């Protein structure tokens, strides 16, 4: 059976909200949980030890835990946090940047690549497999045809590298050193007043014709529509996808997990509609079309 | 510091060399490079002529093969590496790890530069690329502040090249999928951002001008207001009732003021963006930067000539320039 994973929380939530979320997630039918701050170095509601404690708790609940790393590494302080995450031998690390791969390799820690790592072809995977790669995420802009070629290419090479697909949530599309939330409030990034805490689903960016385009979320920009590949699960299974990633939202996530769980078991989900933040669905990337489109 | 200029065409290449470029970079006429524009870039014959011209004047030539091949395109990309090698370029500029591996094994003596599309923003990342693919040089993304560049430069295992002038990408390059989200092409997949094929201009009944990208309204200009190309991150959008440049204003990067600091940091080269620009533009920019670099090397008291700034401002998007992320406040 395909595994379900919860990606790292891409938003900035209070410490209590994060603990409550994972307290519930411990009971959900997800197999793998990615923990850690993948977006902004200023988001420190949870200290490294909080994350480690959480990781051990979830592991004790039977979850496979992977520690995620920051995507855009800019400073020595960022590297210090990264080294801290890689200074352990209990958990696999999700490398979201080559810096993380380098540190993990040096420490002999197994790693997987997150969706922001540019894995576009089999020779790239072959190189990384030699360095300790245990699994990989499909970059969000790639579609099913490329995925199928990658998986069959790996099989032809005799490489067992499980593939994971970002299948539900707002797509992480870009990272900047600029903070767009602070910019909206005319605040300097270094004194941002942590306004992201007020926006647990980011802030909508609309065209002047009221079309949802993006969601700004601190230094990251996400899709304005919610990617939803639920109905593609049978196709993914046929192809040999190992894990289906769901990206955390602060409301209704239990419903999302249950639905995906039903579909991966071959059942038809009955609960409808979902009580979630209003956003149109999209799946264009999967079909090789503009990501915002719905096929 | 070496002056590296764009060569989107043979006349641009010649103008760059004639006006003081130490090196020029070009791509082939397909999606193997990150500036895929109709009518732009060089075929093999033109490339050979350009390389011959540059070498005869003592300038070096780099070939950019810096997009990310997918399985069905793999051979086209390796062929591009083969072509560049047989043309006798002085270095190839790559981003994809698979392609770096191919080049390192097949042409170990052909220097490899890590493209800005390789997203290396720390010395640990540079060490990865150095250890794994023996790169000689890396181009740093335009997201680091000067202090952060200093931190990278201090421990860098390879030569560093930084962007000096031209369009400003404000997202970490190589990891921006905004363009393929609105259109079906991105810098990574097709070497195109906000591709021209998806652009549409419309005049409305009240005389304002609208720019669209795959039908999405990017900006609307009042009658007489200067309009710019609808690069999607530079449009005016609405966030919680405010309409503004929510991501970035249409401005250009200009780091003339930072030249002494960049030199002190041991930066090896400054890069001019703009393979899509005209030969006349390239000539003006190359000449200005040559003068600045010569002045920098001539003595300790470097001062920016106001004439250089006004030349560069006249060539910039919206007539405006910024220090971008090099200047911490920009963030």
TrEMBL record, chain A:
Its cofactor is [4Fe-4S] cluster. [4Fe-4S] cluster binds at residues 40, 179, 192, 196. InterPro entries: Peptidase_U32 (IPR001539), RNA/ubiquinone_mod_enzymes (IPR051454), UbiV (IPR043693). Keywords: 4Fe-4S, Iron, Iron-sulfur, Metal-binding, Ubiquinone biosynthesis. It comes from the Bacteria. Pathway: Cofactor biosynthesis; ubiquinone biosynthesis. Pfam families: Peptidase_U32. PANTHER family: PEPTIDASE U32 FAMILY (PTHR30217), UBIQUINONE BIOSYNTHESIS PROTEIN UBIV (PTHR30217:SF11). Belongs to the peptidase U32 family. UbiV subfamily. HAMAP family: UbiV. Forms a heterodimer with UbiU. Required for O(2)-independent ubiquinone (coenzyme Q) biosynthesis. Together with UbiU, is essential for the C6-hydroxylation reaction in the oxygen-independent ubiquinone biosynthesis pathway. This is Ubiquinone biosynthesis protein UbiV. It comes from Marinobacter zhanjiangensis.
From TrEMBL, chain B:
Keywords: 4Fe-4S, Hydrolase, Iron, Iron-sulfur, Metal-binding, Protease, Ubiquinone biosynthesis. One of its GO terms (molecular function) is peptidase activity. [4Fe-4S] cluster binds at residues 169, 176, 193, 233. InterPro entries: Peptidase_U32 (IPR001539), RNA/ubiquinone_mod_enzymes (IPR051454), UbiU (IPR043692). Pathway: Cofactor biosynthesis; ubiquinone biosynthesis. It comes from the Bacteria. Its cofactor is [4Fe-4S] cluster. Belongs to the peptidase U32 family. UbiU subfamily. Required for O(2)-independent ubiquinone (coenzyme Q) biosynthesis. Together with UbiV, is essential for the C6-hydroxylation reaction in the oxygen-independent ubiquinone biosynthesis pathway. This is Ubiquinone biosynthesis protein UbiU. It comes from Marinobacter zhanjiangensis. The gene is ubiU.
């Amino acid at each position: 059976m395909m595994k379900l994973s919860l990606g790292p929380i891409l938003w900035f939530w209070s410490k209590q909200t994060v603990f409550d979320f994972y307290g519930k997630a411990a009971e959900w039918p997800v197999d793998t949980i990615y923990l850690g701050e993948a977006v902004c170095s200023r988001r420190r509601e949870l200290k490294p030890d909080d994350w480690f404690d959480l990781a051990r708790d979830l592991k004790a609940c039977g979850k496979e835990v992977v520690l995620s790393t920051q995507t855009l590494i800019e400073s020595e302080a960022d590297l210090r946090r990264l080294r801290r995450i890689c200074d352990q031998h209990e958990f696999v690390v999700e490398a979201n940047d080559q810096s993380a791969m380098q540190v993990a390799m040096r420490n002999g820690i197994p790693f997987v690549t997150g969706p922001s790592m540019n894995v576009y072809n089999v020779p790239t995977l072959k190189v990384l497999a030699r360095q300790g790669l245990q699994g990989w995420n499909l970059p969000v802009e790639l579609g099913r045809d490329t995925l199928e070629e990658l998986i069959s290419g790996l099989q032809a090479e005799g490489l067992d590298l499980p593939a994971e697909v970002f299948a539900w949530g707002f797509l992480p599309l870009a990272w900047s050193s600029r903070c767009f939330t602070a910019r909206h409030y005319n605040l300097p990034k270094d004194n941002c007043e942590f306004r992201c805490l007020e926006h647990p689903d980011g802030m909508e960016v609309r065209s002047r014709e009221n079309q949802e385009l993006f969601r700004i979320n601190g230094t990251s920009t996400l899709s304005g529509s919610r990617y939803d590949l639920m109905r593609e699960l049978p196709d993914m299974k046929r192809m040999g996808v190992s894990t289906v990633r769901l990206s955390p939202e602060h409301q209704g996530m239990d419903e999302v997990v249950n639905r995906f769980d039903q579909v991966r078991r071959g059942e038809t989900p009955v609960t409808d509609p979902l009580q979630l933040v209003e956003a149109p669905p999209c799946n264009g990337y999967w079909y090789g079309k503009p990501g915002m489109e719905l096929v | 510091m070496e002056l590296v200029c764009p060569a989107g065409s043979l006349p641009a290449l010649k103008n760059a060399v004639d006006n003081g470029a130490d090196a020029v970079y070009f791509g082939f006429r397909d999606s193997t490079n990150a500036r895929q524009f109709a009518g732009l870039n060089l075929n093999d014959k033109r490339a050979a002529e350009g390389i011959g011209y540059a070498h005869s004047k003592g300038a070096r030539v780099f070939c950019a093969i810096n997009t990310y091949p997918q399985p069905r395109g793999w051979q086209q990309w390796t062929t591009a590496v083969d072509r560049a090698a047989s043309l006798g370029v002085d270095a190839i500029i790559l981003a994809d790890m698979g392609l770096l591996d191919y080049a390192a094994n097949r042409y170990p003596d052909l220097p490899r530069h890590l493209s800005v599309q390789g997203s290396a923003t720390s010395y640990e990342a540079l060490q990865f690329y150095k250890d794994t693919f023996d790169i000689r040089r890396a181009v740093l993304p335009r997201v680091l502040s000067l202090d952060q560049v200093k931190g990278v430069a201090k421990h860098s295992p390879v030569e560093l090249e930084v962007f000096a002038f031209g369009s400003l990408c404000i997202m970490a390059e190589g990891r921006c999928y905004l363009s393929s989200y609105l259109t079906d092409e991105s810098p990574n997949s097709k070497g195109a951002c906000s591709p021209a094929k998806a652009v549409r201009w419309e005049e409305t009944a009240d005389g304002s001008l609208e720019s669209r990208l795959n039908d999405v309204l990017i900006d609307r200009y009042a009658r007489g207001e200067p309009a710019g190309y609808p690069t999607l991150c530079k449009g005016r959008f609405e966030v919680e009732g405010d309409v503004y440049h929510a991501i970035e204003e249409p401005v250009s990067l200009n780091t003339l003021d930072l030249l002494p600091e960049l030199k002190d940091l041991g930066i090896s080269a400054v890069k001019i963006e703009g393979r899509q620009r005209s030969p006349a533009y390239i000539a003006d920019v190359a000449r200005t930067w040559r003068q600045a670099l010569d002045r920098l090397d001539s003595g300790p008291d470097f001062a920016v000539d106001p004439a250089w700034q006004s030349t560069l401002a006249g060539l910039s998007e919206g007539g405006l320039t910024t220090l971008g992320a090099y200047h911490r406040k920009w963030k």
